[in-house]
Amino acid sequence: MIQWEGIMPAVTTKFTSEDELDLAMFEKNIKAQMDAGVHGIILGGSLGEASTLTKSEKETLIKATLEMVGGRIPVVMTIAEQSTKDAIFMAQQAEKAGAQGLMVLPPMRYKATDHETVVFFQSIANSTSLPIMIYNNPIDYKIEVTLDMMAELLKSDNIQAIKESTRDITNIIRLRNRFGDRLKVFTGVDTLGLESLVSGADGWVAGLVCAYPAETVAIYELVKAGRINEALEIYRWFMPLLELDISPQLVQNIKLAEVVTGIGTENVRAPRLQLQGKERERVLNIIETAMKSRPVLPEYKNIKSTV
C-alpha cells in the first residue's frame, strides 16, 4: 500500500559512456535520495529518458531499484505508450517485476478526446492491481485531465493520485475541494513546488531533487511543519536551479547538476546529446553560482508536521 505523499524523485536513468545502464552510479544516486529522506522513487519518466529505454532495461531498472531500496520506500514505474495495448502490457510487466505503483501518462503522439483519454486510463487501471497516479500535463502532452474526467476515473479504486502539472496553482485547490482525501495531489512543476505544498498538495514529483535531494526534502518537511519562512529561504536559493527543469533540455541540465553534486554523470542517450558551447556554460554557471551559496539546512528530519 503506497502512502501517496512527500517527495518522490522522477529519477534520471544513468548510462555508461558505452550507452549501457550504469547501475553503479544509479545506486549511488538512489542512496543519496534515501539518505535525504525521499518518500518514493519514480522510474522511467521523461526525465528518466523512458522513450529511449528498451522493455528489458525498464525491467532491469525496476528490479535493481527494488533491491536498492530494500522495501523502505515504494518504487513507481511510469507508463507512457502510444497504444492502449502496449500500455496495458507495460503496466502488467511492471507489476510482475515488482513495482509497487504506476504513474500513467495519457496516450502519446495521438491527441485523444476526453472520452478516449478516460477509457485509456480506465483500461490500464482494470488491467492491474497496482495503485495509479495520473499524470496531468497539458502543456507538454496536449491533453488535459479535467475535474469531470477525474471524477470518472476515480470510479476505479486503484486510481488514487494525480501529478498536477497544468501550471495553474489554483487547480490544486479545485482538486482538493472537489475530491477531498479520495485523491492525493502532487505537484509536478519544480518552480511551483513550495506554492503547491502550501496550497495543500500532498507531495511533489520533483526533478532537481535528482541533484539536490536534501534541499528538496527539507522544503517539504518544513512546509508540513508550518515553518514556511525557513522553507522559503531555501526555495529562493533553489529557484534558479529549479528553472532548469522547465526546459526541453531538462535531462541534460539536471544530469549536469548531478555531476557537480557528485551523484551522476552527463551521459545521455541519443538523440539527446550533452550540452555544448555557450548553453553548457550558461547552465554550468547557474549551478556553480548556486553551489557557492548552498544553504546550511536546518534539522528537517523527524520534525513534527502541523498539517
Automatic annotation (TrEMBL):
<dbReference type="InterPro" id="IPR002220">
    <property type="entry name" value="DapA-like"/>
</dbReference>
<keyword id="KW-0456">Lyase</keyword>
<dbReference type="InterPro" id="IPR013785">
    <property type="entry name" value="Aldolase_TIM"/>
</dbReference>
<feature type="active site" description="Proton donor/acceptor">
    <location>
        <position position="135"/>
    </location>
</feature>
<feature type="binding site">
    <location>
        <position position="205"/>
    </location>
    <ligand>
        <name>pyruvate</name>
    </ligand>
</feature>
<dbReference type="GO" id="GO:0008840">
    <property type="term" value="F:4-hydroxy-tetrahydrodipicolinate synthase activity"/>
</dbReference>
<feature type="active site" description="Schiff-base intermediate with substrate">
    <location>
        <position position="163"/>
    </location>
</feature>
<comment type="similarity">
    <text>Belongs to the DapA family.</text>
</comment>
<dbReference type="Pfam" id="PF00701">
    <property type="entry name" value="DHDPS"/>
</dbReference>
<protein>
    <submittedName>
        <fullName>Dihydrodipicolinate synthase family protein</fullName>
    </submittedName>
</protein>
